[in-house]
Q: What sequence folds into this?
């Protein structure tokens, strides 16, 4: 993901609308975490730390092949406290990465500014951030061995 601490009057050369769209649509268009039973029963919890309250947090659980395009599972949590918790159930062991964004106006998409830079906070597992685009799967990945696991990331 991109660190957006500086505002510029010109668009970032490496950041594209396609990357932002992939992040948002990958989370939104994926199947719900409870929609289809899976062979194993495990729980992954993703606690996101928020800078603001209101709206919802939309989370996606991804494998490498579908990173930010096709989530294995998705979840939505209310953003009415300092953190929000997305829960994914019946997840088989494997290597995954998580992505989330704070949909402050609950319009179902990651809003962007004139230069296609996200205007809503977002983040990934391991607090992975990209330089001029989304983080790599390699930076966000974690090995899940089953059982109950809780990960945490700050949305920025």
A:
């Amino acid at each position: 993901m991109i660190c957006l601490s500086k505002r510029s009057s010109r668009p970032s050369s490496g950041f594209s609308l396609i990357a932002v769209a992939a992040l948002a649509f990958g989370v939104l268009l994926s199947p719900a975490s409870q929609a289809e039973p899976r062979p194993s029963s495990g729980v992954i919890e993703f606690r996101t730390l928020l800078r603001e309250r209101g709206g919802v947090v939309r989370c996606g659980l991804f494998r490498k092949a579908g990173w930010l395009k096709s989530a294995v599972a998705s979840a939505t949590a209310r953003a009415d406290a300092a953190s929000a918790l997305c829960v994914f159930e019946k997840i088989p062991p494997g290597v995954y990465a998580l992505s989330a964004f704070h949909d402050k106006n609950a319009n179902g998409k990651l809003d962007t500014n004139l230069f296609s830079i996200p205007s809503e906070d977002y983040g990934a597992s391991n607090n992975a951030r990209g330089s001029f685009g989304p983080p790599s799967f390699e930076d966000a990945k974690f090995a899940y061995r089953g059982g109950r696991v809780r990960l945490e990331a700050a949305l920025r």
The domain at 17-154 is CATH 2.60.40.10 (Immunoglobulin-like).
